[in-house]
């Protein structure tokens, strides 16, 4: 059976961090719309040009653009054993569009895992986040340092960067925009009996144990 998953949670909740563990154990492709936009922006593709003005400010990229890239991505062959959507859907319109896509592709959703964290914790999570330039692995200056200082645990790289939109002004707006949509989206998947909540305020390893417990029973 395929594992068709959504990882939900506010910016900084720990989706990317948990996605690395899920991909390692369950071998499903990680589909992060945020990563797709960042790649497009750094390669200056037409999609990147369209997305940049929104991502810079922490606003949502328009639904028709975002739905379009996800539709194309889900149609690729590597999603046969399943997929892990991260950061999508973020609006009810996107949730409806995804529902249509999964129907058309005959890839029904298996579960939605919501990483629940008090928004008050998120500013600190985002401002301390840094990322390996080579492989994209995510760290935190207080909560998740590389085992060998200055060296990425995953790829051995030595260069790291902070995301532009993790700087204070964009963070404020990102949290505002995302908090507004979060409650209706949670209700949407709860109504469809797909929702599993995980307490994302625990340590990274404990959150993973809770996520893994859910996935191993599906
Ligand atoms: P998201 O993908 O949801 O935006 P990330 O996985 O990038 O979030 O995590 C945001 C920041 O918080 C990163 O710096 C990460 O290392 C850190 N982090 C993730 N999960 C936890 C946790 N459970 N406790 C403390 N810090 C965490
Ligand atoms: P993320 O990496 O998930 O924090 O996303 C970074 C940025 O990409 C967001 O602030 C949005 O501007 C854009 N983005 C990512 N996913 C979506 C989505 N599902 N809908 C609209 N915009 C998105």
Automatic annotation (TrEMBL):
It catalyses: AMP + ATP = 2 ADP. Pathway: Purine metabolism; AMP biosynthesis via salvage pathway; AMP from ADP: step 1/1. AMP binds at residues 33, 38, 59-61, 87-90, 94, 163, 174. Residues 32-61 are annotated as: NMP. It is found in: Cytoplasm. Its EC number is 2.7.4.3. CDD domains: ADK. It holds the Pfam family ADK. Belongs to the adenylate kinase family. This is Adenylate kinase. The gene is adk.
């Amino acid at each position: 059976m395929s594992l068709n998953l959504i990882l939900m949670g506010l910016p900084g909740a720990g989706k990317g961090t948990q996605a690395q563990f899920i991909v390692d154990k369950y071998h499903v492709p990680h589909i992060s719309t945020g990563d797709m936009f960042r790649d497009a922006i750094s390669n200056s593709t037409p999609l990147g040009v369209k997305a940049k003005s929104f991502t810079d400010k922490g606003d949502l990229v328009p639904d028709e653009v975002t739905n379009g890239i996800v539709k194309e991505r889900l149609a690729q062959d590597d999603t046969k054993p399943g997929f892990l959507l991260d950061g999508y859907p973020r609006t009810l319109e996107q949730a409806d569009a995804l529902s249509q896509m999964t129907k058309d592709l005959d890839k029904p959703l298996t579960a939605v895992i919501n990483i629940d964290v008090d928004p008050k914790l998120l500013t600190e999570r985002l401002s301390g986040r840094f990322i390996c330039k080579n492989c994209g692995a995510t760290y935190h200056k207080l909560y998740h340092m590389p085992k060998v200082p200055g060296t990425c645990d995953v790829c051995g790289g030595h260069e790291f960067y902070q995301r532009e939109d993790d700087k204070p002004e964009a963070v404020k707006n990102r949290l505002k925009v995302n908090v507004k949509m979060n409650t209706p989206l949670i209700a949407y998947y709860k109504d469809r009996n797909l929702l599993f909540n995980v307490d994302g305020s625990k340590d990274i390893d404990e959150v993973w144990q809770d996520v893994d417990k859910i996935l191993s029973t599906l």
